[in-house]
Write a structure and sequence with these properties.
This protein is mainly alpha-helical and 181 residues long. It folds into 2 domains: 67 residues, no CATH class; 98 residues. The protein is 55% helix and 7% strand. Strands 1-2 form a two-stranded antiparallel sheet. Strands 3-4 form a two-stranded antiparallel ribbon. Helix 3 packs antiparallel against helix 6.
Length: 181
Amino acid sequence: MSFPFPRAKPNKLGYRPADVDEFIAEAREVFNSNQIDAAPNIRVKEFTLEKGGYSVSAVDAALDKLEDTFVARKLQRVIDAGQLDDLLDRLNGLKVLFVGRVERPARKRFSTTGYIYRGYSRKEVDLFVGQVNTHLDGGEKMSVDAVRKVLFTPKRGGYVESQVDLFIDKVVELIQIEKVI
């Protein structure tokens, strides 16, 4: 079954259409069956690249929307089941986690890679953490899309990428929970 994703130019890399189509079909089946707990982990899904495949940006945008839909449905089920307190506890736990990072001194908010290896620019990540702090303080709100698309310059002695990536995932989770409450 084929889905209407635009294709990359014949000499440019894109996602293998058969892989994407199969994954979308599986996700659609789970969605239609209302088995949200069986939802695929969209965030970690990887597709093989091939010349002339589906446009990477178009597929990634569709997967972001799909993830948001699954998460919204799952969170709504939690609320409908009378477990709003559990959701509020999770939200507060995330806020406590973020405050712990924000209160650390600049350039020391995450582990660093050491001078030999590259990590994310500490200056850029610290600016992002500042934006998260503003969001938490009720200032300018961040969107899930903006958080997902944040990019940091690789620098020697930068922050460990896996720690920052996990932090970003938690910020996305926080915003998704805030949307449904």
